[in-house]
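quick one, 148 residues, struct below
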Amino acid sequence: MTWTVYLSGEIHSNWRNDIITEAGGKNLPVEFTAPVTDHAASDNAGTDILGSEESSFWKDHKGASINAIRTRTLIEKSDIVVVKFGEKYRQWNAAFDAGYAAALGKKLIVMHPEEHTHALKEVDSAALAVAKTPAQVAEILEYVTVKE
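---
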């Protein structure tokens, strides 16, 4: 069996590549998917495709709706959802993805620094594992996909 793992969350660091590299080194039966991680492309998807908007609300609405086509489809098709909350920015999208995954009954792994524990207590409660590093996520994936 090949497991599909959706990597959601902050886009300002290379954590996705770190997990993919760690998992690749372990030769895990895992396929990774992710949202569009080009910040400008993601923000402008709606107006680039459907036309400009005078109001930032409608610009963001168009972009979020188009991005949701990809995000929701890939979360729905995933076996495991990993959501990374970074140190620098508030990631409302990540919180939404975690809640969406939990509502669908997806296996959820959350990753964040220790100082976010209190703020993310409800998200952590919905997760089956809370990791601090990409290496820990890769170890979890190794354990659940190949351990006999």
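The chain has one domain: 3-37+76-146.
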